[in-house]
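As described in the Methods, two query proteins were run sequentially through the folding procedure within a single session, without resetting any intermediate state between them. The first query and its resulting structure tokens are shown here.
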Amino acid sequence: MVTPAQPAPAFARLAGHPLRWRLLTELATSDYRVRELVHLVDHPQNLISYHLRLLRDGGLVTTRRSSADARDSYYHLDLERCAQALAATGLALHPALRLTQDLPQLPEPSARPPAVLFTCTGNSARSPIAEALLRHHGGGHVEVTSAGSHPRPHLHPDAVRALREGHGIDLQDQRPRHLDTLTGRHFDHVISLCDKVREVCPDFGDHFGGHARRIHWSISDPATPGPAEQAGYPAFARTVAEIDTRVRYLLPVLTSRKAQP
């Protein structure tokens, strides 16, 4: 008796296309606009947009309107959703292929841990949240700081509260700093969390002509959420949760052997 063929899991069908796999690979490292993806993968914009729409419909990719140019949008790969889809795909093939979604264990600290800079405009919410969470999860494996192009006088009290209540992290005494105060310092990774600051952030390369790896996370300012988003403290709690997910998936990249300078 012939067993009826079962359709391939949705993730296998989506990721199995060579161009969609390339788009997923690029978006796994940073958020990008369509025109940037066109340049990276060297395919026509209409083709890129078509495959991005399929990835969006499949729930693997999300979009967010740019705060720097409201006519543009950033695409983001939902790594948490990808992990769930990969686990389900393995299980669909064979019960023994049940995949764990646990992130890799961190190695012992290296002689010089990677240096990471998080940036946003005011350095009052998004970038200090990311700094605190990476330091919290990194356990000495990463050197991390944050700064802003137009720093506010103080951290936003809801950002301080959300970190304290969600992760037991106290930032009460931290103050925003200007990007100019970091002139001359070298960072291996510069991660912008604000569409506006991405356009003005310095390179922070080393004295030998090396360049920091630039990564962008397009995250809404919780102090001014979009019209469809809940304002006030819930916006900050939501931002902390999003950044925490991104930071946890960033750590294995930072501490892998390939990421070391």
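Immediately afterward, the second query was submitted; its sequence and tokens are:
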Amino acid sequence: MSNVKVFRLAYVDFSAKNAGAMVDYYTHTMGYRVTEEKDGVTYLSNGLDHHNIVITPAEEKAIRRYGYQLDGQMTLEKVQEQLHSQGIASSMKIDAKPGISRFLELQDPAGNVLEIFTEMEQTAIGFGSSGIVPLKLGHIAFYAKNFKETIKFYQEVLNFAFTDQIGVDFANFLTCNTDHHVINIVASEETRLHHIAFQLKDASHQYASSDLLAKHGRPVLWGPSRHTAGHNIATYHHDPEENVVELYTDMDVFISELGIFEPRPWHEILPQKPKVWEALSAWGTEFELDLAKV
């Protein structure tokens, strides 16, 4: 087992066909704040970090890369040595990105580009004063070719813990901290984003976010409902480039030492342990959007 330990998803870097519309969405609808614009690339912060969302103009929409922060127990040089010993190629980048002076660039078996680092500038630009203003960037879900190898990579190389599944080998939830999941790896023949998710404060914030989405002409496509895996209350909508965005609250808290989730009144079984779920909604509600096929 690797000693390399990731503890959070720090940022997502989008390639955007209409970068202006994406920046407008993240500033006016989501309530993020711009920290820097350089070479046409816009860096946006949730409140503390230099960036949590990056918008890069491109001819096609895609995810350029994901940024994960390491626990700092090993230098990047030692991390690179350990990756090399596991047969994983990486390159050291110095002063290649605003806000992060040094990071390692590598790929997972699905082909996602990852940037792993120990320190990011805490610009502390503050939370936005208008828009949805999430508490944080919570997780990403992505379709993955070579999904079994990809799951193994995150467990054995970056020390993620496997929590739940929906369907056998369909949706696979993993975490690097106490959140029920930080990534959701969906079995597929291709690799692309399934959705990006942001944590809200509470139920009232969830209601207000749906009102604000309606005001900005972005209808809720699925929800609100309580998921099975993770038990979070969730809604989903499209950003300007039709990436699926989840807004959630009430996500399960994973206690790795006990292999259970913190008890909640809505848990079907106590203690609630990782399992295979057959459905997406604990309430049995159905919506026009099929989340399994976005």
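The first strand starts at residue 6 and ends at 16. We note this only descriptively and draw no conclusion about the first query from it.
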